[in-house]
Design brief:
- With 284 residues, this protein is of the alpha+beta class.
- 24% of the residues lie in helices and 26% in strands.
- It has 7 helices and 16 strands.
- An 8-stranded mixed sheet has the order 1-2-3-14-6-16-5-4, covered by helices on one side. A 3-stranded antiparallel sheet has the order 13-7-15.
- It is globular and about 50 Å long.
């Protein structure tokens, strides 16, 4: 197995490995690399669905998404199909499922069908984004919380067009009321501070008036996706990407018109975000 860093802030390619046949040493190396690089890219893998589930379970229990369709008889794998779901309006930066009490630890995404052009995905390191803030803003944000709301990215006009879909969406909204998380969270494994607000789900910063909250969030959103923190991946069928959902956000580009794009995603259950300025650990 060879690990090649792509940027100092984020990303590494792992080559000379078959994800369908992993040893215990391989699994340990992948877990360690994810903490160091936040997003891992594997080319020409052509995973089976069962292997994708097994890889995701290296990191923990798997999440069942309340809205997206799944692979038949495999509820742990959601299907992102541009011909079945309106993905165009989801072209925004987000961290997955932060509307839950325990947002995901990470995700394993594989390319099933790729359009001839377009459809790239971008990831941004939120540890690097926080590190680059000036000290006054860091101190302002530490200890604050923000509200995350499922309705920002899952509105009825997109996900409730049929009666069955609307009933599923309304249940998801009822099961996931708006929830507050730290604006700056502590990574449970590395101890690093992470900027934890995104356009996709963060509605406001708690305790601030509406205008102040909006202006601060807009400033943080723009800061968090600067080129220095971002890596972009051009997909090929068979590619697999694993990312740390706690310390990154991402955006899939919808620039391929009516061409067909299908991705399968396994999502790993995380823990309750917290902030502890004294919590320090060495990277595993």
């Amino acid at each position: 197995m060879n690990i090649t860093p792509l940027k100092s802030t984020i990303g590494a390619i792992i080559s000379d490995i078959d994800l369908n046949q992993l040893t215990d040493d391989d699994r340990h190396t992948i877990k360690k690399a994810l903490l160091s690089h936040q997003v891992l890219f594997f080319k020409d893998q052509h995973l089976t669905t069962q292997a994708q589930v097994a890889i995701a379970r290296i990191f923990g229990e798997l999440h069942i998404h309340p809205v997206f369709p799944t692979v038949p008889n495999v509820p742990e794998i959601i299907v992102l199909d541009s011909h079945q779901t309106n993905l165009k309006d989801n072209e925004l930066w987000h961290t997955d499922v932060t509307f839950s009490k325990t947002p995901p630890l990470g995700c394993v995404l594989r390319a099933v069908k790729i359009p001839p052009t377009g459809g790239d995905t971008l990831w941004a390191s939120q540890t690097s984004a926080f590190d680059a803030l000036d000290d006054d803003i860091k101190n302002l944000l530490r200890g604050k919380t923000a509200t995350h709301d499922i309705r920002l990215s899952f509105p009825p006009e997109r996900f409730g067009q049929s009666q069955a879909d609307d009933e599923k969406l309304q249940k998801a909204i009822a099961d996931n009321p708006p929830i507050s998380h730290p604006v700056v969270r502590t990574h449970p494994d590395t101890g690093k501070e992470i900027l934890f607000v995104t356009e996709g789900f963060t509605s406001h910063i708690d305790g601030l008036d509406e205008q102040t909250s909006r202006e601060l969030l807009d400033r943080l959103f723009a800061h968090s996706i600067q080129d220095d923190f971002v890596i972009r991946h051009k997909w090929c069928e068979g590619d697999v990407v694993i990312w740390d959902n706690r310390s990154t956000q991402h955006k899939a580009l919808f620039d391929y018109g009516n061409n067909h794009r299908i991705m399968h995603r396994a999502t790993i259950v995380g823990d309750v975000p917290f902030y502890d300025q004294q919590h320090q650990k060495k990277v595993i």
